[in-house]
Specification:
Ribosomal Protein S5, domain 2; 3 domains; 6 strands; single chain; alpha+beta; four-stranded mixed β-sheet; 14% strand
């Protein structure tokens, strides 16, 4: 489920901005961008995100704007001297006549300049965690509002499926009459065969009726739809469970369409499948 939250911590020394964005994902996947000063606290921050956000693809950035003059980088003189000597030897090796600008080259080499070391202010770190909590609350509020919209859509589409199920009834009665007429016609055509193997014929008639009967599928479909609504109303973080229930709904719809052998009922089944497909698409966006 998508979400967004932003909060700012500001004191005399610096301004710290925290932004969190979330996308739906089955697992927790955290992409954390934070200043070097807070690197040692990375595991703690990830733990907070895991507990309060749950799952999803989470992008969090922590940016620092210093208000006071920051101490200049530290020059590692021994490393700089090493690079300088190596560059001079390289110049002699290639017999270059021009004099390179060694200083500009040396300062760009790795580990010549080191950022000033800061110690974490535990009081400021506590304020930082509180600011992260505030940003997470905004993310969860965003997700909750989106969830309410999705909930209304789920209820609407499940009720559509139940309404379509009611529309099957008149066609079901007509279909049953056609089946009885067909069996009666077959009875008349094969009257002699019935007498010769009556038990076997009766078994085949029962099998034929059971094969075409969709009463059980209709009952189970209604129960699954009602259970979907109950789960939606009463359970927290039920996305996975709703996914399983939607699979059962789809199974009953498919079986009903296969057994119906009636054009009108199969048209209704297509409409049911369309509603269910929209539900499944949105289920990927909830926890």
């Amino acid at each position: 489920m998508t979400g967004y939250g932003k909060d700012v911590l500001e004191n005399n020394a610096r301004k710290i901005t925290i932004e969190i964005r979330t996308l739906n994902s089955k697992q927790l996947d955290v992409n954390l961008r934070l200043p070097q000063i807070y690197r040692e606290k990375e595991l703690n921050i990830r733990s907070v995100l895991g507990k309060e956000i749950g799952r999803g693809k989470v992008d969090i950035s922590i940016n620092i704007e210093h208000k006071e003059v920051v101490t200049a980088p530290v020059i590692n003189r021994s490393v700089a001297r090493h690079y300088f000597n190596e560059l001079q030897e390289l110049k002699g090796l290639f017999q270059q006549e021009t004099q390179p600008d060694y200083l500009s080259l040396v300062v760009k080499m790795p580990e010549v300049l080191s950022p000033p070391e800061f110690e974490i202010d535990e009081e400021e770190y506590g304020e930082l965690l509180a600011t992260i909590h505030n940003a997470i609350e905004k993310v969860n509020t965003f997700r909750l509002n989106e969830g309410k919209i999705l909930e209304k859509d789920f209820i609407y589409r499940i009720h559509n499926i139940l309404d379509l199920l009611k529309q099957v009834e008149p066609f079901e009665k007509e279909r049953t009459l056609h089946i009885k007429e067909r069996i009666k016609s077959n009875l008349e055509d094969f009257a002699q065969d019935i007498q010769s193997d009556k038990n076997r014929f009766e078994q085949e008639v029962i099998y034929y009726l059971e094969k075409l009967d969709i009463t059980e599928e209709k009952l189970r479909l209604k129960k699954h739809c009602n259970y979907f609504l109950e789960t939606l109303a009463n359970e927290h973080a039920a996305g996975k469970k709703l996914g399983f229930v939607s699979q059962e709904i789809g199974r009953e719809i498919n079986t009903m369409g296969a057994k119906a052998n009636d054009f009108n009922i199969q048209q209704i089944v297509v409409l049911m499948k369309d509603e269910l497909e929209k539900i499944k698409e949105q289920l990927f966006n909830i926890l």
